[in-house]
Amino acid sequence: MLNDLFQSVKDASLDLALLSNETINQVLNAVADAALQQTPAILAANASDLARMDAASPMYDRLKLTPERIEGIAADTRKVSTLPSPLGRILKHHILPNGLELTRISVPFGVIGIVYEARPNVTFDVFSLCLKSGNACILKGGKDADDSNRAIVSIIKEVLKRFGINEHVIELLPATHEATAALLHANGYVDLVIPRGSKRLIDFVRQEATVPVIETGAGVCHAYFDKAGDLEKGARIINNAKTRRVSVCNALDCTIIHEDRLSDLPAICAPLKDSNVLIYADAPALAALTGHYPAELLKPATEATYGTEFQAYTMAIKTVATLDEALRHIRQFGSGHSESIITEDADVATRFLRAVDAACVYHNAPTSFTDGAQFGLGAEIGISTQKLHARGPMALEEITTYKWIIKGNGQTRPK
After folding, report:
1. What angle do CA 273, 318, 324 make, to 5 degrees?
2. Left if phi > 0, otherwise alpha if psi is -120 to 50, otherwise beta: which for 134?
3. Each residue of 257-306: pLDDT tens digit?
């Protein structure tokens, strides 16, 4: 039974209310320092995890840590320390005719559970955002990253001890199915669960949890190259969206192209050759690319091709005759994560931005920018694709709720 651990985290979350923002910022900077100082230990643990995973797996890149990635994690942690506290913000204030003074202020959720897969950077991100927002966190990582996660949590706990802070403000559960089930049913202990990972994981958490869930959906992302698209921009945007990091949820999965621009498709796809991107193209796109793109990297698309989050150097291409057809394709196969249009026609861009139902919709920019740090949020705890409470990159404000403060002077309510 994990209830004793859950109770310890809940108790620790109440202690967080007594921490000043200054102390929290000092802790975050100390964690960033410790991550850099302990890079060899983190990499050694990560190497142990990597040794158990097939290097060809799409998850391998997500799992892998490098000195450069740890430097980036430390920088994101420091960035969070520089952000304004999300707590105690006055969201509403008014005085009723009877003299009661009402104030709505932002407060922490309390205890946030995170279920995630082979993403050890999430351990740092979740801790920094939760501490800054006054939340304790219970982490349930995947077995693929267990050694990395345990090394990271150990480093964080050492910093907490140094500052005299209850180390139960962060706990890492065993990497077992039983621990996942316990977390999802930790009513009375856990205020919110956020899943990060595959569609299968997210669906499981949504269906099984009896505690509230914020869904961070899978990313099936599209880029529509309109008939008024700029060729040079399009080639750069599509290449960046597809190849910057293929294992992340904002990576491009499908390029939609207007039939009037099929002659430009070889030039649009040319940069993808350098990354050996496998393309599944519909008949018109396949004809346009044949002889201009490596034959071994070019295959005919099937209906099953679309709506797939590849998480690999793989991309689909769909040809359309109109903007409306492109919108229908996104509506049918998109996941509500991130969608982009490449066009110089302002009216077409406006229609696309209004019509596409996704958390993030881009004009002449790649979906690879869907990221809390890129949005200036410091880091992110996930990308919400639902519409209740939070949508898009979730950072400090999105992991707070609110309460009402009512001040009176002896008023009573009439019978």
Report:
1. 140
2. left
3. 999 999 999 999 999 999 999 999 999 999 999 999 999 999 999 988 99
